[in-house]
Amino acid sequence: MLRIILADAELELIPEGLFGHPSVRSYAKRRGKPPERLLMDGSFVHSALNRLPDGDRRGRPDIVHVFLLVCLDSILNLRGQLETLVHTRNNEVISISQETRLPKNYNRFLGLMESLFERGVVPSKENPLLRLERDLSLGNLLDRFRGQSIALTEDAPLMDPVAVFEKLGPDVNCIVGGFPRGDFLSPVRELTAKRFSLWREPLKIWTVASELTTSYGRVADSKGKR
C-alpha cells in the first residue's frame, strides 16, 4: 500500500482577523455565506493575505483539489493500493475513501470542503467518504501507520522513484508538500527515513502525484505481491 500525504497544505477557513477586510466581505457576499464558513482562496481575497504571516503561500485550496483528483483517478487507487490524506498547516487531517469521486468543478469542490470543515464528515457518518480530524500533527498521524516514511524535498538528492520504491517494503508513507513555495512547517526531515527529489526544479503537484502513483504501481507489478 502506498500512502501519499499532502502535508502542510494551505487549506484553511478564513481567519477571524480578516472578516472585515473589503475583499473578504465582497467574496462572502458573492458566495452567499458568512466569512467564517468560507475557505480562504488567494484568487479571491489576495489583498487580504498581506495581513497574514506567510501570506504569500496561503489560500491555495486549488493545490489540494488537483492533488486529490489525480490520486483518486489513478490506476493505483482503482486497484485499491493507494491511500490519500491531506494534512493542513493548522494540523487538521482529511482522510479520503478510495471510493470518493470528487467534483471536477472547482467551485463545487470549495463547497464540499467548506461542508467538511463545518460538519467533520461528508456526506454522512453512515457513509464517511471524507473525514476531518483536528489537532493531529503530522508526526502523530505517521505514528498510526506501519511501513517506512519518506518525503520529497527540494534539497534532497535526485532519485528515480522506481528505484526508491524497489528498496522499500510494501507499505510506504510518502509525504509531499501542499504549498506553492517555501518549506515544510512540520519537522519532515526528522520524521522521515529517506528524502529525495524528482527533478532539479520544483514540480507541479499533478506531476508529483502522477509520478509517485505510476512508479509505485510499476514496482508492485514487478514484485507481484503488494
| CATH fold title of the largest domain | Alpha/beta knot
Strand order of the largest sheet: 4-5-3-2-1-7-6-8
Briefly, what CATH class of the largest domain? Alpha Beta
Range of strand content: 15-25%
Give the count of structural domains.
Answer: 2
Description:
With 226 residues, this protein is α/β, with parallel strands linked by helices. The protein folds into two domains: 2-10 and 59-223, 3-Layer(aba) Sandwich (Alpha/beta knot); 16-49, no CATH class. The protein contains nine helices and eight strands. It has helices spanning 22-31, 42-49, 61-72, 75-78, 106-119, 138-142, 161-166, 188-191, 205-223; strands at 2-9, 82-88, 93-96, 121-123, 128-133, 148-152, 172-177, 194-196. Helix 1 (22-31) runs antiparallel to helix 2 (42-49) and helix 3 runs parallel beside helix 9. The longest helix has 19 residues, at 205-223. The radius of gyration is 18 Å and the shape is globular. The N and C termini lie close together (7 Å). The mean pLDDT is 96.
In short:
The protein has 226 residues and is an alpha/beta fold.
Key words describing this protein structure:
226 residues; alpha/beta; 2 domains; eight-stranded mixed sheet
Helices, strands, pairings?
Elements: E1 2-9, H1 22-31, H2 42-49, H3 61-72, H4 75-78, E2 82-88, E3 93-96, H5 106-119, E4 121-123, E5 128-133, H6 138-142, E6 148-152, H7 161-166, E7 172-177, H8 188-191, E8 194-196, H9 205-223
Parallel strand pairs: 1-2, 1-7, 6-7, 6-8
Antiparallel strand pairs: 2-3, 3-5, 4-5
Helix pairs in contact: 1-2, 3-9
